[in-house]
Amino acid sequence: MAVYDGALGLVAHRVYTQTDLHEVWGGVVPELASRDHVRRLLPMVRAVLAEAGSGPQDLHGIAYTAGPGLIGALLVGALVGSSLSMAWGLPAVGIHHLEGHLLAPRLEADPPAFPYLALLVSGGHTMIVDVAGVGDYRVLGESLDDAAGEAFDKTAKLLGLAYPGGAKLAQLAEQGRPGIYKFPRPMLDRPGFDFSFSGLKTAARLALQAAGEDPGARADLARGFEEAVVDTLVTKVARALEATGRQVVVVAGGVGANRRLRARLSEMAARVGARAAYPRPEFCTDNAAMIAYAGHARLAAGEHSVGGPLARARWALCELRPPGADRAT
Ligand code: KG4
Ligand code: ZN
To answer: Ligand 1 pocket, 288 CB below 6 A?
Structure first.
């Protein structure tokens, strides 16, 4: 939950994470996620409004995540958002989750100006997107199988790390030696900007089996895996910068919190005379601030959601239009 002000910027924001709930099960259990949303949402709305020193009378609209994703959890947020909009007499707008991620770097000081390239790397998506403006997105390439975050999480699981293991794998990799494990760099031999990470995960599994009980192998393997993912992502982004002539690349999504990825991207950007911009790590992973930012852009253009589905499990990014293009979505 977040409060965003067009003049002041982000006024208050809070993330409630369900990681503990899902860790027990080794993944997200949709029904548990939805039920937990029901319990948490209204107290959270009260707490963040209090923190912002605002009441409903100070708000101009309500934005909620309308998709894509787990429909049960989405519906809880959409219903709370639309109910509050009715009760408080405010317009509401449903936001595309990935639009939030793509715009998150603009929450920071010295925000990147449009147009820019975005490397969107999360648990569900791996994409290079050309962002010409709010709602003006062109997907240049994406993963044909596992998302980068998914590959991190699955490999972390093989290494015995708890879900979601991406950040834990990155920590383990810090203790590993570079170059001991040389994993493939999938799809680099092919033109275009698509990715594939499922083979890499299999290579990691086979290497782990071969390593047997060697105590140092896990850290070396984590390091080799991380290097391979980061190398693949950075090489494709470099190619996309060259092909489009864009001067700025931003990173979005949970894997964007990865320190090695940030360091390598910055190095590459400097080498080709471009700039790399990042949201702070807490705005890389899922958060309400990015949804409030996108919502503000759309509500300010007079857009609001009326009729139609409240939430959508599937929703292609290319269906989006700039704010106000079709006022009621
Ligand atoms: O964007 P996000 O919070 O949720 C989705 O929309 O998927 O991304 C979560 C993903 C998880 O796969 C998690 O393991 C990964 O981001 N992640 C990381 C790091 N921090 C989070 N992966 C690699 N290194 C990290 N430091
Ligand atoms: Zn996300």
So the answer is: no
Residue pair 239/150 in contact (Cβ under 8 Å)? The answer is no
Task: Concatenate the DSSP letters of all residues of 68-121 into one string.
Answer: SS-HHHHHHHHHHHHHHHHHHT--EEEEEHHHHHHHGGGGSSSPPPSSEEEEEE
**Main-chain phi, psi angles of 47, to 5 degrees:** -65, -45
* Crossing angle between the packed helical segments 217-244 and 198-211, to the nearest 10 degrees: 160
Q: Which domain holds residue 83?
A: 2-101+284-319
**Does 109 reside within a domain?**
no
67 lines ligand 1 (CB under 6 A): no
pTM (2 decimals)? 0.92
Query: What is the separation of C-alpha 118 from the centre of its chain, rounded to a whole number of angstroms?
Result: 11
Nearest CA to ligand 1 atom 14: 166
Higher pLDDT, 163 or 255: 255
Distance CA 131, CA 285 (A): 19
pLDDT digits (tens, 9 = 90+) for 256-311: 999 999 999 999 999 999 999 999 999 999 999 999 999 999 999 999 988 778 99
Number of domains in the chain: 2
Q: 108 and 241 in contact (C-beta within 8 Å)? A: no
- What phi, psi does 118 have (nearest 5°)? -120, 130
122 C-beta closer than 6 A to ligand 1: yes
Q: Is 180 among the domain residues?
A: yes
Task: For 121, list phi and psi in degrees, rounded to 5.
Answer: -130, 105
Q: Is 193 in the pocket of ligand 1 (CB under 6 A)?
A: no
Taking a C-beta distance cutoff of 8 angstroms, is the pair 118, 252 a contact? yes
Residue 327: what pLDDT? 54
Query: Ligand 2 centroid to 211 CA: how many Å?
Result: 34
* pLDDT tens by residue, 52-90: 999 999 999 999 999 999 999 999 999 999 999 999 999
326 part of a folded domain: no
Closest ligand to C-alpha of residue 65 is: 2
Closest by alpha carbon to 327, among 73, 61, 114?
61
Asked if residue 329 belongs to a domain, the reply is no
